[in-house]
Amino acid sequence: MTATIISGKQVSEEIRRGITEEVTQLKEQGVVPGLAVVLVGEDPASQVYVRNKEKACHDLGFYSEVHRLSADTSEEELLALVDRLNRQMSINGILVQLPLPGHIDEKKVINAISVDKDVDGFHPINVGNLVIGDDSLLPCTPAGVIELIKRTGLEISGKHAVVIGRSNIVGKPVSLLLQRENATVTMCHSRTANMQELAKQADILVVAIGRANFIDASYIKEGAVVIDVGMNRLETGKLAGDVDFESAKEISGAITPVPGGVGPMTITMLMQNTLLSAKRAHG
Ligand code: GUN
Predict the structure, then answer these.
(1) What does the alpha-carbon distance between residue 8 and residue 102 come to, in Å, rounded to a whole number?
(2) 204, 209, 219: which is closest to 255 by C-alpha?
(3) Does the Cβ of 120 fall within 6 Å of ligand 1?
(4) pTM listed for this prediction
(5) Is the peptide bond before 259 cis (omega within 30 degrees of 0)?
(6) Are the C-beta atoms of 266 and 227 separated by less than 8 Å?
(7) Which of 103, 149, 159, 227 is exposed most, by the fewest CB atoms within 10 A?
């Protein structure tokens, strides 16, 4: 069997077309969704991510503000900026790019973002709402993972999903969202004794462990949907997922490539969250 390749790029473009249409309609009512991105310091990867978010705002007709602050910005100054953005009517979403410099308490900053403008879905209240199944802004990468699984046409309900990785930003929320879709979920992590045996039972396998090409065909059940959240830079400079794509595509039913799989979905879901937040603010 050779797998269907799930193009996150293509799905992302489809969703973006829908967002653009909604933005056009909102503008007729005088509403423009606005996103503020805050970058502290000069981390090269963060600079690229922030530029991509700025570009997405421009492409989709959102209002955007990017606050580039020096690495020695104090926690107090950053909190003052967040407070100002919380109260600014033209801003519907606030994203403080992580990681922050060591002298700033990340938790304190995340907690200071208005729950309604927390388009990353990182605020403890949004996390709590996700756990209890209440309406909340969903974290972007996990929401993108679910969207990609749905687009394969697979009915998630009743399936066995195995999530490898238990991070707060991917593994844990993905497992909660899969449960919400009525999957039976098994979580695996670095201390799991029989990972291969468990993974091989999965109808849906989501991998987010941060180890290049770790999961090969021997971990995959024939016909499974495999979602690779990994983004590892190899010594050669090439980007690799957590799944050994060449081996895995011979056995899985559908699989995401890296790059071009989950990656393009993250910013698109961020834009969708910002749009949702704008609609709620003017609802
Ligand atoms: N740094 C890397 N990924 C992310 C993300 O999704 N949100 C924020 N705020 N920072 C990040």
Answers:
(1) 34
(2) 204
(3) yes
(4) 0.97
(5) yes
(6) no
(7) 103
Nearest CA to ligand 1 atom 9: 97
Q: Is 270 in the pocket of ligand 1 (CB under 6 A)?
A: no
Which among 185, 179, 211 has a CA at the least distance from the CA of 199? 185
Strands 184-188 and 160-164: parallel
Alpha carbons 227 and 143: distance in angstroms, whole number: 12
Residues 173/266, Cβ–Cβ less than 8 Å: no
Q: How far apart are CA 225 and CA 213, in angstroms?
A: 17
Query: What positions carry a catalytic annotation?
Result: 53, 97, 120
Q: Which residue has the tokens 């209440």?
A: 134
1 vs 11, more confident:
11
Beta strands 239-240 and 232-233, pairing class: antiparallel
User: What gap in Å lies between CA 183 and CA 176, rounded to an integer?
Assistant: 10
List, in order of start, the domains of the chain with CATH numbers. Answer: 30-114 (3.40.50.10860), 139-262 (3.40.50.720)
252 in contact with ligand 1, CB cutoff 6 A: no
* Complex-level ipTM: 0.96
